[in-house]
Amino acid sequence: MKEQWRKWLSDLQNLMLPRLCPVCSQRLMPNEQFICLACSMDLPRINLNPIDDNAMIRKLWAQIPVETGTSVIAYRHQSPFHNILVNIKYHGATELAFEMGRWAACEITSTTIFEQIDVMVPVPLSRRKMQKRGYNQSLLLCNGMAQVNRLPIRNWLHRISDENTQTHLNEEERIENTINAFEADIPINEHGKRILLVDDVFTTGATMTACAKAILKSDETAIINVFTLAYTV
Questions:
Q1: Residue 13: which H helix or E strand, with range?
Q2: At what angle are helices 137-149 and 94-107 packed, to 10 degrees?
Q3: Distance CA 231, CA 233 (A)
Q4: Per-domain residue ranges of the chain
Q5: What is the rounded CA–CA span in Å between residue 187 and residue 219?
Q6: Domain 44-232: which topology?
């Protein structure tokens, strides 16, 4: 009886407030979670393998020592799949962020990246953005990933400047915008951990570089690895 009641409420809610696919805006079927089956099958997956030498890693090597790194979605601004990130970052799609994190972790379990990680550290938002948005999408991605890899999450990073948005900045401007933007506070008993930095999208690597430098300033024995949901191609 209780299950029937829940199903009735769910059907009523879907009728009054239909769930829509963030990519194509079509109504989701009851068996579809957050993205319709057609769009899920068409997701522009990216193969950043091997995890210890790929385009992402090479962009970072000039600035910071990185052991491994990968991503799962090829990001193009003009693609309708861009709407996934827009919804996650700006439209309060917290459940979508969590589910994308869980899906991404399942996608990369075929690699050995999680075998080389002790903790996940989400890239933080500024206080102003956190107050406005009410959530950190990178932390939500971590929460979803943790459902699969069972790794602990540590909020060791803090943003110490209210940065301007980087959406329309070029590479040089992005680097300037993130210099000294972060600080890390890693307890001494946690030094030497193999850290997976987690963010939503990798464009120039400026944010990851600044976060990694902050971590290494707090603990020079930390080992840096990186993951983003999307990688700009």
A1: helix 2-16
A2: 40
A3: 6
A4: 1-42, 44-232
A5: 9
A6: Rossmann fold (3.40.50)
The answer to whether 199 and 137 have CB atoms below 8 angstroms apart is no
Most confident option among 31-40, 75-84, 155-164, 188-197:
188-197
Residue 2 has pLDDT above 90, yes or no: no
Cβ–Cβ < 8 Å for 214, 157 = yes
Percentage with pLDDT > 70 across the chain:
86
- pLDDT, average across residues 2-9: 50
Buried b (16+ CB within 10 A) or exposed e, 128-167: ebeeeeeebbbbbbbbbbbebbebebbebbebeeebeebe
CA dihedral 212, 60, 194, 177 (to 10 degrees): 20
Confidence of residue 175 (pLDDT cuts 50, 70, 90): low
In degrees and rounded to multiples of 5, residue 73 shows phi and psi of -120, 130
Residue 3 reports pLDDT greater than 70:
no
